[in-house]
Amino acid sequence: MSIKNPDEVIKKFLTQESSPSFFKGLKALFVRNMKIIWQYKFSLLMGFINTLVVTSLFFYISLLVPDLQMTQDNYTVDSISFIFAGVLLLEISTKILMKSMNSFTSEMKQGTFETLATLPFGLRRYFISEIAFEVLYGLILSTVYFIPIFFIFPVFRAVSISAASFFSLLLVALCTILFFFSLSLLAANFTILNKRGKEIAMVLIGIMHLLSGSLFPLQLFPKWLEHIAHASPFTFAVQAFRLCLFGQGVLSDNIIWGAVLFLILSSIVLIATFYFTFNSIYKRIRITGTIHEF
Amino acid sequence: MHANEVVSSFINLEKKSSPLSRISAIFLTRLKMAFNYKSSFLMTLVLNLVTIMMYFFFSKIKPEMQVFGINATYFEFAIIGLCLQMVVGTSLGSVSANIYNEILSGTWSSVLLHFNFLEYSIGTTLAGVLLSSVSIFLAIGLAYLTIGFYLTITSQEVMLILLLFILIILAHMAISMLFAAFTIFYQKTSNLISLLYQLTKTFSGVVFPVTLLSGFPLIVSRSLPLTYGLESIHQLLFSPTLNMDYIFVNCLIIISFIVLLGSIAYGMVFLSLKNIRKNGKVDWY
């Protein structure tokens, strides 16, 4: 087929007739990424030590106020557990977002992004597959890393949690992961435009960390900042996560279902924005010829 | 920066033979390159400010919070550490990360042709530290405007802080050179630098005093040069009496770090360069 205008070229790359199916492409990408990870086995150990050190940082910070009791949403808990719970959710989310953004930055830096962008599989489907891989990988890594960390820092040993609260906690965690998947997808879209994937991820995480109240209760914020904080879905995620863990919160509680609903709705909005902005961003980098730039 | 300017900055070096002019060439090239990444600079600034704000609100969790052994409020204690840690992060990553970028972008062999390793290290570190310092001064300024943070220091304290600052930067530059030796040899980076940065951030007494540590974490803390630098700066700024002996001993410890790590790093870089030249791997990636 001869291509006469640029839109057809875009169409060809986006929905190539001869492209592999989504699942075949997804499988190929998973295999490729696993092979790359295997080349850097040492990084897996480094990752664990890094997680341990980050957790230690917040553990020691919480030791500055060891006797302080935090009261929030009708439960009271010691400051160490309060901070640790916030940091746990934050650390998993950070891993997902950072890994997703780092993978794009790395492809751009090494000059392989242009090749990936022109594969018949399609750039959009590559984005979805790549981030799906990073989310899954980040989740598995976090689980593996945190099991020994819970033995080193026996913070939640005194916490008893009912089955209903446990499932609500899992649901909140899953929705948080879905939210970060969607956020990564949209951030990746902008990364191809301004090439600053790592910095975008760090700023997003930094702002959400501040607004989430993972280190302190939100009541310490001035009113205007508290309102802004409540616009962040991650703030609700942290609040609901803590309520399930310390206050026997279940899905029927307003805070829990509210957080679940907010996270799902935010994810839908982010994914829709990704779909709506993708074509124009892709077109723009083609017009400006910056796809290979870093 | 225009491509021709990069080429001419290298060509002009033939006329500039002194080490100082070569360092300044590297320094200026790095600055010009950094100005091409303004969005990155702005995002780092936002991140620094957000981090400072976070510890400001944490300090309100218990306003009477005691920082063991230090006569200051928690926020005064933390902001000093946070600002220093941001600069240290830059000097820790500069040499190794820049060499990796040179390898990736294929300019490494050209750099090796015109500069020696030490000049390159000093030039890149100076540029990185200057840029991160600008970001930190802006962050402190904004912290003053938004949350009213300020410190009163004498000219003698300023001089001593400057000396400690230079020593801390040199110590971390030596560590970065050490990791650069591995980058040169293997043509890839490891996560060791970011791990060391995280260790420094956690165990040097940046956001909590090292008196909270015991056992192995305390050994880690005492193995990091920033611990001694921060202890001295905290002593200088917050102690009612100036203990010069204490600061002098800490300065000597940091100098020992510089001499020891710098010598090892230089030796290892020398061997790595010899190896890649011998095996014709300079242009490899």
Structural account:
The complex is a heterodimer of chains A (294) and B (285). With 294 residues, chain A is mainly alpha-helical. Helices cover 74% and strands 3% of the residues of chain A. Chain A is built from eleven helices and two strands. Chain A has a two-stranded antiparallel ribbon with strand order 1-2. In chain A, β1 (69-72) and β2 form a beta hairpin. In chain A, α4 (79-110) runs antiparallel to α6 (123-152), α8 (197-212) crosses α10 (233-246) and α10 (233-246) runs antiparallel to α11. The two termini of chain A are 32 Å apart. The relative contact order of chain A is 0.14. Chain B has one domain. Chain B contains eleven helices and no strands. The longest helix of chain B has 35 residues, at 244-278. Chain B is globular, with a radius of gyration of 20 Å.
The coarse silhouette of chain A is: globular
Number of helices of chain B: 11
Strand order across the largest sheet of chain A: 1-2
Oligomer: heterodimer
What is the number of beta strands of chain A? 2
Helical stretch count of chain A? 11
Total number of beta strands of chain B? 0
Number of domains of chain B: 1
Key descriptive features of the protein:
heterodimer, A: 294 residues, mainly alpha, two-stranded antiparallel sheet, 11 helices, 74% helix, B: 285 residues
Question: Which secondary structure elements does this structure contain, and how are they paired or packed?
Answer:
The complex is a heterodimer of chains A (294) and B (285).
Chain A: H1 6-14, H2 22-39, H3 41-62, E1 69-72, E2 75-78, H4 79-110, H5 113-117, H6 123-152, H7 163-194, H8 197-212, H9 223-229, H10 233-246, H11 254-287
Antiparallel strand pairs in A: 1-2
Helix pairs in contact in A: 2-6, 3-4, 3-6, 4-6, 4-7, 4-8, 4-10, 6-7, 7-10, 7-11, 8-9, 8-10, 10-11
Chain B: H1 3-11, H2 19-35, H3 38-59, H4 74-105, H5 108-114, H6 117-147, H7 155-186, H8 192-203, H9 216-222, H10 225-238, H11 244-278
Helix pairs in contact in B: 2-6, 3-4, 3-6, 4-6, 4-7, 4-8, 4-10, 7-10, 7-11, 10-11
